[in-house]
Amino acid sequence: MEFSFSLPTKIEFGCGALERTGILAKAAGAKKVMLVADQGVIRTGLPGRVRKRLEEEQLPVVEFSQIVANPRIKDCEKGAQLAIDEGVDFLVAVGGGSSMDTAKAIAGMLGHHTTDFKVIQYPQAYTEDSFPLICIPTTAGTGSEMSICGVVTDEETRTKVFCFDPKCHATIAICDPEVLYGLPGQVAAATAVDALTHAIEGFVAKCTNAVTESFGIRAVKLISENIREFVYERTPQSCEAVMLGSMFAGIAFGYSDTCAVHSLSETIGGAYDTPHGVANAIFLANVTEYSIPGNMKKYEQIAEAMGITGSGLSRRELCERLVGELKSMVKDLDIPLFRELPGVNPEDFPMLAQKCSVHLSAPDNPREIGYEDFLKILKTTYNETGR
């Protein structure tokens, strides 16, 4: 499958699409490129291939790799300063959400002629366009290549903060399923459940619409049907399906919102530096169970998209089976338990629940959720044991 399609972000999808990076960057007006990739991705050799394609088009390249999981404001600001010093006019991000969100933050700051992230930090609206940016996801999970949001960590408050604006989008997304073939199993599992979470929440969020619903429910079907084969066999067909599903999920939540799963995962990520996909996977089933009464019809549609059927079952019974399938999926993919995460301390739960209750995405959860509800979910999830 190969195609081109444009939202604000132009999509280039297909095996081998990465090899067109230089041509696409030059056609988009690039003169000097900053290549943004973290050290782990660099070791895979993919950024080196991208750099070669850029240089084949006579485009000078500056590399920025000071990126960690759950990227930091200060590192994004250093990247913006390097870009200014080097006279960069175009960015290419290669990697997962950390690399792409870092590049989005840098592009936003460059567009505003600043190295101060607070100038573009939500709720500040963008007053200028971001610098042009190509995003090349190397996992099928984050959806950052399609969203209008970047997520970074404020180290001082240990809180996730955002650059969030219609102008915070990639110019081009290059989605090449071939880059997934060598993905480590644990990374594949966490990022694929991350994508499924985006699809589900983009479909059920209160602010969703007919367009985002269509992308979301299609993504649910693609990812759920292929996730186990993708994680454990990494067949070309499953890689293509999950990459496509992840991209659709990015459109779904990127132009609607996420919900309470992300309120929890981003709060946990800020507090304990937990990988985002792992945190989403840990809370997905329990938040779904809580949220079902808020829009049972939509959760029934999710169950059907995931192939959960049963003659004579009521809507409630189908939704209960959905919760069971989500728990089974997370177990099958060997996602760690909440209590197994480094640093997790039940004494923190009241503080975490308070942060969740004021999180940006909490109001869009299909069922109203507040401090006491988040606290109960944290405790319930922490007390889960066994495999």
How far do the termini sit from each other?
A: 38 Å
Helical residues, percent: 40-55%
Question: Main beta sheet: strand number and arrangement?
Answer: 7 strands, mixed
- Radius of gyration over C-alpha positions, nearest whole angstrom: 20 Å
Task: Please list the strands of the largest sheet in the order they lie side by side.
Answer: 1-2-9-6-5-3-4
Coarse morphology: globular
Return the average pLDDT rounded to an integer.
95
Number of helices: 14
Structural class assignment: alpha/beta
The total count of strands amounts to 9
Low-confidence stretches: none
N-to-C series of helices and strands:
EEHEHHEHEHEEEEHHHHHHHHH
Strand proportion: 5-15%
Brief write-up:
This protein has 387 residues and is α/β, with parallel strands linked by helices. It has helices at 21-27, 39-44, 46-56, 73-86, 97-111, 185-204, 210-232, 236-254, 260-272, 276-291, 296-305, 315-332, 349-357, 371-382; strands at residues 3-6, 10-13, 33-36, 61-64, 90-95, 133-137, 149-154, 159-164, 172-175.
Give a written overview of the molecule.
By secondary structure, this protein is an alpha/beta fold. It has helices at residues 21-27, 39-44, 46-56, 73-86, 97-111, 185-204, 210-232, 236-254, 260-272, 276-291, 296-305, 315-332, 349-357, 371-382, and strands at residues 3-6, 10-13, 33-36, 61-64, 90-95, 133-137, 149-154, 159-164, 172-175. Strands 1-2-9-6-5-3-4 form a seven-stranded mixed beta sheet, sandwiched between helices. Strands 7-8 form a two-stranded antiparallel ribbon. Helix 5 links the parallel strand 5 (90-95) and strand 6 (133-137). Helix 6 (185-204) runs parallel beside helix 8 (236-254) and helix 9 (260-272) crosses helix 13 (349-357). The longest helix has 23 residues, at 210-232. The protein is globular, with a radius of gyration of 20 Å. The two termini are 38 Å apart. The model has no long low-confidence stretch (mean pLDDT 95).
